[in-house]
Design brief:
The strands form five sheets. The chain has a five-stranded mixed barrel with strand order 2-3-4-5-6. Strands 8-15-9-10-11 form a five-stranded parallel beta sheet. The protein is of the alpha/beta class. The protein binds nicotinamide-adenine-dinucleotide (NAD).
Length: 477
């Protein structure tokens, strides 16, 4: 086994958590080794997740916009879809980003090992390189950033061409006539949107009473209405309990809340019922690192595992499984290892589902406030009153603030509509800076923009929104 020189830090997994950790550590002067099976950093997010899915959603938007132009006096011929070119385009985007990350890695003089790592003990790893060579890496500290893998369902046959997880669905080698999406969460709804736009008849089955269960109902209602109009069927409170391949289709048994069942046949199935942490096959038994019953690596508030030299961040270390959470956790851990007094302690982590319309939220939700009996007041601004929304042909959408009635501090923000994923960053900043509703109301937002809906929602709280007549009920009248 080839024994390299000792690294201050070794990072296992080069997704947005791992590479951000490695980059930050190198920027702070540590010697860093980054290990991943892919040729360049990027992880699931760039190779098999966020970036390809958002590229396909962009293609879906082009197709949808094209259908919605007649009332603007513009019409096009029916679109032709070249799936091979679509895949090439997505591939080019992924290549350009991952190769860019490879260059950034080299600029920082980080040692990049393409291979699979296993712990030998609390200060060394055995790395099986892609070339077949075995290398021993000795480290001062290690960060595990190995991410997560799609969860499977036992009654769907493994490696069957009709059954896809998100990785296979992103390849879009063909467009099935009918697609069953099992799971009405992030992946099911985003990829369901792509396939519906490409021409599949999409059916969603969700076991909870609503899509994106846990997100405020007034927000998901707007999204659900649109999805129902674009998909063939949406079944909530429903489970798939069995599946059998029958010729060119797979017959799935849907089990409804009232106990009845129905057998339906689909050309293709997308299983999107969550993800599980990649904590096995790491040699953790050779260390003091402990895992929870769900397979997450146990960490303290500093993301340190039960083995003091080893840290864990991102999906493998717990919910929410979001790239930006992993990035910030990793950067903070790198700073801590470099000797800074820091802790990952965010007031708000934004969540965005890139459906049409997009849906985004951060901080306290109304659902959570009700459950935990936290006093709150809601201020909503409907997008039907936004000049910018209407001028883009959008009338459905909403911006919502959750406000502490006493201090008037912004506790939570929710946005449904175009670019909700961009707009939510203002909400995160407001919460992190402990902004009051009046701070947002007094901040001059550019006109005409969707960002004004956040300002106007703050004005709604005081009963003084310019474009919405909603007087505040005052105590003395
Ligand atoms: P998810 O948790 O968002 O949704 C899974 C859904 O499947 C849930 O609503 C659950 O109730 C349902 N479900 C579970 N078992 C079922 C069954 N047997 N039958 C019917 N429904 C069932 O998980 P996901 O969509 O697989 O995504 C995984 C993770 O990836 C998410 O937690 C998210 O953090 C991350 N992700 C984020 C983005 C983004 O940020 N835009 C996009 C994709 C994925």
């Amino acid at each position: 086994m080839n024994d390299g020189k000792k690294s201050d830090l070794v990072v296992i997994g080069a997704g947005p958590g791992g590479y951000a950790t490695a980059f930050m550590a190198a920027d702070l002067g540590l010697s860093v080794t980054l290990i991943d099976p892919e040729e360049n950093p990027g992880g699931v997010c760039l190779y098999r997740g966020c970036i390809p899915s958002k590229s396909l959603l962009h293609a879906a938007q082009i197709l949808k916009h094209h259908k919605q132009t007649a009332d603007w006096g513009i019409t096009f011929n029916a679109p032709k879809i070249d799936l091979e070119q679509l895949q090439n385009k997505v591939g080019q985007i992924v290549d350009s980003l991952t190769q860019g990350l490879g260059q950034l890695n080299r600029n920082r003089k980080i040692t990049y090992l393409q291979g699979h790592a296993r712990f030998i003990d609390s200060s060394s790893l055995r790395v099986q390189l892609q070339s077949g060579e075995i290398k021993k890496v000795v480290f001062e500290n290690a960060v595990i950033a190995t991410g997560s893998t799609p969860t499977t369902l036992p009654f769907f046959p493994e490696n069957h061409p009709m059954v896809m997880d998100s990785t296979e669905a992103l390849k879009v080698t063909s467009v099935p006539k009918s697609l069953l999406v099992v799971g009405g969460g992030y992946i099911g709804l985003e990829l369901g949107t792509v396939y519906a736009a490409l021409g599949s008849e999409v059916t969603v089955v969700e076991m909870m009473p609503g899509l994106l269960w846990g997100v405020d109902r007034d927000m998901t209602r707007i999204l659900t209405k649109k999805i129902i109009s674009e998909f063939t069927a949406v079944h909530v409170d429903t489970k798939v309990v069995n599946a059998k391949a029958t010729g060119k289709e797979m017959t799935c048994r849907l089990s409804f809340k009232d106990g009845t069942t129905d057998d339906k046949a689909f050309e293709r199935i997308l299983v999107a019922v969550g993800r599980r942490p990649n904590s096995s096959d790491l040699g953790l038994e050779n260390t003091k690192v402990a895992i929870t019953t769900e397979g997450f690596i146990k960490t303290n508030e500093g993301k340190q595992t039960d083995d003091p030299t080893i840290y864990a961040i991102g999906d493998v270390a717990g919910e929410p499984m979001l790239a930006h959470k992993a990035t910030h956790e990793g950067r903070t851990v790198a700073e801590a290892i470099a000797g800074k007094k820091v802790l990952f302690d965010p007031r708000a982590i934004p969540a965005v589902v890139f459906t049409d319309p997009e849906i985004a939220w951060c901080g306290l939700t109304e659902t959570q406030a009700k459950k935990e009996k936290i006093p709150y007041e809601i201020a909503r601004f409907p997008w039907a009153a936004s000049g910018r929304a209407l001028s883009q042909g959008i009338s459905e959408g909403m911006t919502k603030l959750i406000i502490d009635p006493e201090s008037e501090r912004i506790l939570g923000v929710g946005v449904v509509g175009n670019n909700a994923g961009e707009l939510i960053a203002q909400g995160v900043l407001a919460i992190e800076m402990a902004a009051l509703a009046s701070d947002i109301g007094m901040t001059i937002h550019p006109h005409p923009t969707l960002s004004e809906t956040i300002m106007e929602a703050a004005d709604v709280f005081y009963g003084t929104s310019t474009h919405l007549y909603r007087p505040k009920r005052r105590k003395n009248n």
